[in-house]
Design brief:
Blueprint: H1 2-6, H2 11-23, H3 37-63, H4 68-77, H5 81-92, H6 98-107
Length: 108
């Protein structure tokens, strides 16, 4: 914050600093128990966004399937319901969810 007094942080710098600070403290969804729910929503949605932007949903599904529900909840909390629906649909396609895959295919 001393640096902020000299050269103000822009929104992207601040977001990056917050996310990196949390990344040092959070490894699993269970680690979020020490924080308010809003922190979990932010962290999970940002974590998913980073993975999807880097390698698509396939990469995110491989790297972090345990974060999908919380990320979807974060998008819902922001009023981004369609994004939350997409995350849930992708989660349903993950291995172990074969019945959900069949139901999605049947509905299209």
């Amino acid at each position: 914050m001393e640096q902020d007094a000299v050269t103000p942080l822009d929104d992207d710098d601040f977001d990056h600093a917050v996310f990196c600070g949390l990344l040092d403290r959070i490894s699993t969804p269970r680690d979020l128990e020490q924080f308010p729910p809003q922190v979990g929503f932010y962290f999970a949605s940002r974590l998913l966004q980073n993975d999807v932007c880097n390698g698509g949903f396939a990469q995110a599904a491989f790297n972090m399937p345990e974060w999908f529900d919380l990320a979807a909840a974060g998008y819902r909390a922001l009023g981004k319901n369609r994004s939350a629906e997409i995350i849930q649909e992708v989660k349903d396609l993950l291995p172990g969810n074969e019945e959900a895959v069949r139901q999605l295919r049947a509905s299209t």
